[in-house]
Amino acid sequence: MAMLISGTVPIKDLPLTLGEARFEGESLSLNDFKIPCTQGTAALISAALATTDYLKIDPPQVLLVGDNGEGRGSRLLYEYIIKNIPDLLPDVLVLHYCLPDMALMRRLCESVERCSKRPIMIADASSMYAAKAAGLATKFDIFTPDATEIAFLADPDATHPAYISRHLFDTDVTRTPELVDVAYKLKSAAKLLLVKGEIDYVVKDGKIIDTITEPNIPALEAIGGTGDTITGLVAAFAYAELELHEAAIIAARANRMAGKFALATPGTKVWQIISQFPAVFKEYLCEWSGVCYVAAQS
Amino acid sequence: MLFRRKKKPPFEGGGLLLFEKVEEAIKAEKVLKGADYVVKLVAPPPSLRKGCDLAVEINLVEQMGIERLFRQKDVAYLEVVPLKGGGELLEMVKITNFNNATMVKAGNMKVTFDRNTGIILNASGGGCPDIPYLHTQLIDKKLTEAPRPKEIGFTLCALMMDRAFEECLELWRKGGN
Lengths: 298, 177
Hints:
Distance between the termini of chain A: 17 Å
Strand order of the largest sheet of chain B: 2-3-1-4
Distance between the termini of chain B: 71 Å
CATH class of chain A: Alpha Beta
Largest sheet of chain A: 9 strands, mixed
Largest sheet of chain B: 4 strands, antiparallel
Number of strands of chain A: 12
Number of helices of chain B: 5
Order of helices and strands of chain A: EEEEEHEHEHEHEHHHEEEHHHH
Number of strands of chain B: 8
Helix content of chain B: 25-40%
Strand content of chain B: 15-25%
Oligomer: heterodimer
Largest interface: A-B, 67 and 60 residues
């Protein structure tokens, strides 16, 4: 299997479903279900789809289930991955929205160890929370935290960002390198971090290798789902076999540029940002990646 | 060995419910299991012990939904504490102003409203499964008419969203700034 993206969506009666989704602007379609393309895994999948479509590579397989927060869908999701991941054998595995559960995340990571070829492991949102809380962060290749979440990774005790120490929350963006350093010392970070914020930091094995600051679109922070789109972009570029740090750098740049193209305001919806990715790729991907010819898939 | 007992999967919840009396803890466990929560009766560590010497371990992330269920089912408890750390929820907020909008950040959650109309423009941050649902329920509604995240959410992310929402409401009632 190519790339597998898993997560919960706010359609309570959506059964656990494995398949291909389609981006349709304000919604994402999966079989007969229309999933609103808002904050969450729908935004992540839509961004990944925009990228794989543009690059003419296989679209992601998605494993989705309805869960409005009660956790039943999340537990089904964990159990399915635990049981089936050695057979699904994705090249890239993205774990996203779900009820964080440390014991289930531990079993999931043990199951991944049984894969004949280890996938590139990417976690964001509460899957990242569960991985950190269970002491499993180093099993992952990429985390994509925001400013509060890097403080969470740097807190030795917190199992959720709501319980991070006040002094860690009350920091500005200039302290991010310090928090990154602490997170790596605590083994609470993945091999590569893309820390999203006013300044995006790309960190490899504890060392900041790049920062992205332009274009500066402050409204992006207010738009629900613009962190999720970055994770979708990173995953798709990683699946396209860019080096992981290159995937992260291009994802951060593309997200900012899509915000500029969309003339983003705090009221902009994330699907309006996603709709700009093809134009951004057309104009900048060659310059950013050095890959200027997209071959049709054989 | 001929007979091997199947080991139950371990439970790592990260949070404890503390009680004054043992019978309250037993009732709480029954109510929670009846509502499909995964929980476990445990002895609280001495450093966290208050009241009786029986506690219920919960998935800390589910704190808000559990406390609401206890109010509905009239279950008495002393408090919820994380198994590690200082044990205090983040209370502070940060405020950012845009041209006609204000964004309030509480913990990992952000809520943004239009200062002229009081309409919720966006919500961002977080990662728990109720957040995309809350997003669809709140966006484009007036702060004074939207449902409170603490009434329809279940998780700590929703609790932080409610903290941001509450601050937005207060700012709006004071005149939008």
